[in-house]
Write a structure and sequence with these properties.
Length: 285
């Protein structure tokens, strides 16, 4: 039996804002576990992945570059195994993510998807757009300014104009939810699931966690949260995932962000074993 070759594609540092070391660490941990399991693992940067012929049987990757995602999708169409799927990575861009979560009835804030040239005052429900979050719709957030908290309609117009000047044509507007901010990590098809309060751990990319402030420890059903996350994972076609949710004062859970292959910094060792096991199981199937 031939030894299976795996291509590992690292994430470009541009797409690891304030988490370069953490992203590299989880990628390295999974690489080591796959090598120890007997697979031949060849490593590529996103640029090397773009310019080289990929002949490996499997790709595991944290890539985000749009051209690299397209190439990964082409390889998947040809039968290669990919974790995460290039289609899943693309689905985690903000506009696609929002549409898919809402279409699949994953609990989510009331939202609008609009052009930066439009002026809006209400959601589809008729409620006023007041305290809200404006997020670039075309890609993942790579700068602090790609996600902006807005307190009133005048501020909203200013933010939309600033996005337009930066060449961002479409945005997602999410209502601001009051409650405890919770960050979660998971690997679909495995028992692994981890959550924590990022405010308490001072775990942040851009400091937006300060808006909801110190968590009150509102009681919620962790099993229900995992079920919601697994539903989102399926809707987005993302096996290795992480994200954020808000726990309302009554314990209601709503997903506000969902990402392909995050850093897993607080639970790296356990996560790496779950990811490597999931990749190996996918190969066996």
């Amino acid at each position: 039996m031939k030894q299976i070759k795996i291509a590992g594609v690292k994430r470009h540092t541009l797409f690891s804002p304030n988490h370069i070391g953490n992203d590299a660490a989880i990628f390295s941990a999974v690489t080591n576990l796959l090598s120890e399991a007997g697979f031949i693992v060849n490593l590529y940067t996103e640029q090397e992945f773009l310019v080289n012929d990929i002949t490996e049987d499997v790709v595991f990757t944290m890539l985000r570059n749009e051209q690299a995602v397209r190439k990964l999708q082409q390889l998947e169409n040809g039968g290669i195994i990919a974790v995460n799927s290039g289609y899943g990575i693309e689905n985690c861009t903000r506009e696609r993510m929002t549409r898919l979560l809402l279409e699949n009835n994953v609990p989510h804030p009331e939202s609008l998807i609009i052009s930066t040239m439009e002026e809006v005052t209400t959601y589809a429900s008729g409620r006023d757009v007041a305290f809200c979050w404006v997020k670039r719709g075309d890609f993942h957030a790579i700068h602090r300014e790609d996600v902006t908290y807005v307190r009133n309609k005048e501020n909203l117009r200013e933010v939309m104009a600033e996005y337009a000047l930066r060449g961002i044509n479409r945005v997602v507007i999410n209502e601001h939810l009051e409650g405890d901010l919770v960050k979660f990590y998971g690997v679909a098809g495995t028992p692994f699931f981890h959550w924590f309060y990022p405010f308490d751990k001072k775990h942040s990319k851009f400091g937006h966690e300060e808006i909801n402030g110190k968590p009150e420890g509102i009681h919620f059903d962790m099993g229900h949260l995992k079920d919601i996350c697994d539903k989102a994972s399926e809707a987005l076609s993302v096996m290795v995932y992480g994200g954020d949710c808000i726990i309302a004062p009554d314990g209601t859970i709503r997903i506000i962000d969902f990402n392909d292959w995050p850093s897993f910094a607080p639970c790296r060792e356990e996560a790496a074993h779950a990811i490597a096991s999931a990749i190996i199981e996918k190969i066996k199937k």
